């Protein structure tokens, strides 16, 4: 980028301080559009005489060059106060970032605890079915109470420790995404509990399917038949849960039935498919697209939503599909995005009141990944310009923002 004298700066000029390093200046971002004279005065106080600027991203023209020998008004020097103000503001912003990072860490711990609990539930199904049912009901109940006791909800991306997802992580994702859609549909508390429990247990039958068949992208006809039997194995696995409500069993039995009648095992169609199963089917498909066994085949969240809407919409309840997309937002958690300052980030949280301005983790090689900046786009003069495909980004950028490759979700109630 070309350089410009600090004396020619005015609000609206887009500057880059990347050469200083993030800790070498008092601003929150390395690249930003100047918004006040205070920022320019802070640059002068730092002893900076020239900065890089981007004419294409600027909304104002630089001031004319000063004529040599021309006198300048002797105004009171407010530079020191401006710099101190910038430093104070940065400290406040960094404290907010720290709190947000602590919040993400707390949710990641909760997700890991839930994954351990889900694993225990699946392992104890046959030997101790009643204990498994109590544990599963407690796990679902806590989440449902949290969601129903709030005005809205926030969908968070969590970074679980294991690279291998496994049954527990998929089950938690489908449960969270199903309950998200269920809340948007206005389900009752009882329906939400049934939905959550069915979504958590929807794939328990896969424990009886050989991993080779589960992971195969191209199954033979006999292998596909064996794979589809996981629905029946799931019903068999929960047979010891004698008090499990019928709507819960129906989620397990019908989560692969399609609205157009092309699903399995019973080729049900339309509203013959139980409503809760129709919800779980959408959540299940979305997570399978984002987190396939072969992560090289994974679709970005926005891409997965487009795929379902454009090529598979006949399989699902249209009203539910539209609401699912609306609830996840234009930029669902896990979406890589190009920002208006030329930077790249990844959405880690939705903002339920403003889906166009989510919480974004910024890629900045000057900052360790463990201390990566989290920017609420409502608080910064930034906007998302486009969703990006991770396949088209440098490997180091993808590994910085999503080091484990998987996308896992935690849904939480919000008071708006």
UniProtKB/TrEMBL annotation:
HD-GYP domain ranges (all copies): 145-340
UniProt-listed SMART domains: HDc (SM00471)
Region: Disordered, residue numbers: 55-75
Official protein name in the record: DUF3391 domain-containing protein
Organism: Aromatoleum diolicum
């Amino acid at each position: 980028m070309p350089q410009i004298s600090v004396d020619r700066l005015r609000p609206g000029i887009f500057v880059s301080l990347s050469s200083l390093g993030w800790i070498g200046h008092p601003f929150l971002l390395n690249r930003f559009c100047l918004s006040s004279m205070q920022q320019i005065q802070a640059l002068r106080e730092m002893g900076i005489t020239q900065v890089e600027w981007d004419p294409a991203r600027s909304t104002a023209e630089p001031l004319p060059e000063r004529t040599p020998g021309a006198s300048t008004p002797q105004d009171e020097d407010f530079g020191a106060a401006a710099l101190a103000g910038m430093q104070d503001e940065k400290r406040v912003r960094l404290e907010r970032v720290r709190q947000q990072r602590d919040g993400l860490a707390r949710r990641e711990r909760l997700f890991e605890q839930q994954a351990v609990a889900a694993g225990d539930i699946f392992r104890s199904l046959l030997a101790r079915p009643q204990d498994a049912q109590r544990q599963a009901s407690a796990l679902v109940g806590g989440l449902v109470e949290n969601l129903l006791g709030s005005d809205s909800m926030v969908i968070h991306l969590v970074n679980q420790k294991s690279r291998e997802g496994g049954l527990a992580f998929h089950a938690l994702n489908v449960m969270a995404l199903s309950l998200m859609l269920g809340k948007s549909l206005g389900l009752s508390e009882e329906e939400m509990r049934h939905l959550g429990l069915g979504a958590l247990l929807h794939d328990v039958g896969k424990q009886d399917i050989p991993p080779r068949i589960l992971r195969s992208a191209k199954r033979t006809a006999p292998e596909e038949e064996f794979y589809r039997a996981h629905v029946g194995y799931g019903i068999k696995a929960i047979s010891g849960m004698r008090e499990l409500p019928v709507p819960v069993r129906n989620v397990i039995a019908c989560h692969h039935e399609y609205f157009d009648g092309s699903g399995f095992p019973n080729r049900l169609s339309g509203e013959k498919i139980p409503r809760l199963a129709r919800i779980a089917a959408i959540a299940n498909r979305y997570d399978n697209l984002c987190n396939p066994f072969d992560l090289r085949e994974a679709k970005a969240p926005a891409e997965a939503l487009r795929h379902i809407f454009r090529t598979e919409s006949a399989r699902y309840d249209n009203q539910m599909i539209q609401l699912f997309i609306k609830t996840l937002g234009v930029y669902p958690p896990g979406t890589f995005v190009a920002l208006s300052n030329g930077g790249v980030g990844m959405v880690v949280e939705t903002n339920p009141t403003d889906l166009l301005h989510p919480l974004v983790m910024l890629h900045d090689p000057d900052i360790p990944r463990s201390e990566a900046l989290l920017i609420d786009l409502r608080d910064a003069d930034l906007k998302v310009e486009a969703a990006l495909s991770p396949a088209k980004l440098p490997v180091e950028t993808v590994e910085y923002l999503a080091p484990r490759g998987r996308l896992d979700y935690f849904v939480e109630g919000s008071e708006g």
